[in-house]
Amino acid sequence: MTSSMETEIHYLAKDELFDREKPFDTDFSVASIPGARSSNHTVDTRTVVVNEITNPDEWDLNTHGFCIIKAETKLDPDDVFTRKKEIQNDYWYEIEAILHEKFPEYSRIDAYDCTVRKRDPDFPRITRTYVDYEQPARRPHTDCSQKGSYMNLEHSFPGQEEFWKGKEFDILNVWRPLIGPCDDWPLALCDWTSVDQDNDIRLNDALRRDRVDENSLLHFNPSHRWYFIRNHSIDDLIVFRNADSHGKRARGFHVSVMNPTSESPARQSVEVRLVAFR
């Protein structure tokens, strides 16, 4: 029997402010900058039902914006926090190989980021600025917009603009817990077929320490259908599309949600961002 959980999702509010000012947020402290704001977001908190994924084969990247791949990968949960630069390339190669086997339509796949998260026991009651690892993301989003996908490539592969000029590509994420089975603050995915592309999506400036990115945020729509993996195993890889070069393919809006029935230790997770050329 399919089970579900009731939880809260903190959407971006449909504020009139955004008719005059583009939404933005930062991933660093601005306390030392007089008059600076870390964000102009207003929150629309909604109680939602998130359904359990019971049959991974039902989910298709090109229809729903995400899919699940069962695959064994090797990544030491301790080393990834202390020696990430030394070990991340091997993990990248594993993920690239898995995606090539699953998606033969891609001619080339290159990983360019590895993000690890370790939930602080005080999160979300107390929020801090973390340098070594990030916290679960509480605003439904994709990591980049169509424009942001090019900004990602320019930052990660400087001087190689001629290579991707005119090419069709997708920006993908591969996400899993580092230690499982895990039920703490699971990743929830929104079925792309339930998203109103004209009214639900808002572009956002994501201000980083060294650059500006653009990603996409989600406004509330009662038609949204959310899903998660219960007792998430480290071998269950969630693959979702953030954006594509032509802005025409299904996207995987995602968010971390509190599981009120979880008995798991504080969640640790890893995600790889990749560009996949067709």
TrEMBL record:
Superkingdom, taxonomy of origin: Eukaryota
Signal peptide interval: none
InterPro entries: AsaB-like
A GO MF label: oxidoreductase activity
Family label: Belongs to the asaB hydroxylase/desaturase family.
PANTHER family in alphabetical order: BLL6449 PROTEIN, OXIDOREDUCTASE AN1597
Protein name per Swiss-Prot or TrEMBL: CmcJ-like methyltransferase
